[in-house]
Fold:
Amino acid sequence: MNRAASPESSRRGANGSDAQPLRGAASVPPGRRVWLRFKRNRLGYWSLIVFIAAFVISLAGPLWSNDKPLVVRYQGHFYFPLVKTYAETTFGGDFPTPADYLDPFVRDRFSAPGNFAIYPPNHYYYDTLNYFSKGSNPAPPSRENWLGTDDRGRDVFARLVYGFRVSVLFALVLTAIGTVLGVVAGAVQGYFGGRIDITGQRLIEIWSALPELYLLIIFASIFEPSLILLIILLSLFGWIGLSDYVRAEFLRNRTQDYVRAARAMGLSNWQIIWRHVLPNSLTPVITFLPFRMSGAILALTSLDFLGLGVPSPTPSLGELLAQGKANLDAWWISLSTFGVLVATLLLLTFMGDALRNALDTRISDAVKAGGGQ
Structure:
């Protein structure tokens, strides 16, 4: 009679090694395994944390970089200038125009006994003009303006905060639209193949041969530049590169056994594409997301630098770089803007490299076997 196996021996395989971690690893969902491999890359993981934190801080910019107080108590009443515009007469002024909270007269009213005002740490919005400043512009960094002012007297720190927010939001929208268009175009060509694939490829070749920069210049001269116009124009060309990768993945995966089994079960082509082929073809799509965002930020910065981007006074990294070029003695404008742009692109690059390694199991296993992080 065979001896009953002990609990300890039942957890060991034929070679005496502990098999429980293998069974536990096999039970982890694929998405969870990718996330664990991503976290193993400390540089990419902390780049993601820093990027998200910076973006969240920029979204909350009005709470800590604004020319209006957060809360005002005046003559026994509380006011919230961030959510409502108050006239100067509300605080004892003579004119019914919106109150200028940088005005020394208004500040003196708030400093009277029983009154107070809680200002953000930085007292400037991205388009604030301090008419009460006694210095010339552009002004170097000081206690009042942490990173100095531009040639119009606007606070550089505030414009960097809001310019970063505009750049990231622009990149997110442009990346989302280009990804959807690229996936749809590549999926249709790669799955159906034949004449559909050949016709699609010829149309893409013709479309990609159009001079994108010239079209931007023409439309910028006809229409008033705006973020919406830039997103539309750049989205017309931003999907082409991604569609080639998705097409290649679909051409490879459409011949797999699970696709033949799905056809034998009577599923429609669109059901097979959505449920089976697309989930197994998303590796290049996910891998390129950070790099596509980098390209979108660089495109917006370049267009703003050339004067073809968003109109003034919308904050922009490219517009600040153009001001730095026009005012070479105001080194603080170019240095701070270049630092923010380089840091943003480096964070996205580190995230993209870590994401690529996490999705490629061969790279992840090699790094783990070599003891790398």
